[in-house]
Design brief:
The structure is a single chain. The chain has 3 helices and 10 strands. It is of the alpha+beta class and 188 residues long. The strands form 2 sheets. Strands 1, 2, 3, 4, 5, 6, 7 and 8 form an 8-stranded mixed beta sheet that branches. It has a two-stranded antiparallel ribbon with strand order 9-10. It is globular and about 50 Å long. Bound molecules: zinc ion (ZN).
């Protein structure tokens, strides 16, 4: 059912995020908005990255390798563009080091670069406390919802344990580390 209103939704924290990778020619600078990163196995197919449901996965069945990718929301500086940075496991490891050190990623000023200037060159990530009060930062967006939207996966299935819109029950589930994954045992 389409819901029409004459006022914008009150919660717009998930709007306007662009999914990006670390650019090769110009370092990315900004403030991290989430407490921690979120990652999941993915496939690169037909020019885009898609989540791997593990188990019954057509891409795995076709021999396509999967790679774990991590995602973190960033308020870019300057310009204040909101992005979700996609990172390799190696880059994410660097960020996890800062998480261990600071106890959270939120509010850290981050610098991500590819010193080789190659599109798939090694990523260097540096971070430090920004000093910006938490209350002056935008609310962290719901990364899972944004990614599922970008990936074209019906996020309504996550609500109500997958029982809406005639979706098979438990088609989606959260795994042990909080990632949304397709439930391999569900009928697709
Ligand atoms: Zn797969």
């Amino acid at each position: 059912m389409i819901s029409w209103t004459n006022t914008p939704p009150s919660t717009t924290s998930d709007c306007g995020y662009r999914l990006i990778r670390t650019p090769p020619f110009k370092p990315l600078r900004g403030i991290i908005l989430a407490d921690d990163l979120l990652g999941t196995p993915t496939h690169y197919t037909k020019g885009r990255t898609l989540p791997c449901p593990q188990g019954e996965c057509e891409h795995c069945a076709n021999g396509l390798p999967y790679r774990w990718h991590a995602y973190v929301p960033i308020l870019c500086m300057p310009g204040k563009e909101r992005v979700i940075l996609e990172m390799t496991a190696l880059a994410a490891d660097q960020l996890k080091g800062y998480h261990s050190r600071f106890g959270t990623l939120r509010g850290l000023e981050v610098y991500a670069d590819r010193p080789s200037r190659k599109p798939n060159g090694r990523i260097v990530i540096l971070a430090k406390a920004s000093g910006i009060p938490d209350t002056e930062l935008p609310v962290a967006p719901d990364i899972r919802r944004i990614l599922l939207h970008i990936w074209g996966i019906d996020d309504a299935a996550i609500e109500d344990n997958g029982r809406r819109r005639n979706m098979p029950a438990s088609r989606f589930k959260n795994n042990d580390v909080g990632n949304v994954v397709l439930n391999p045992s569900a009928e697709l």
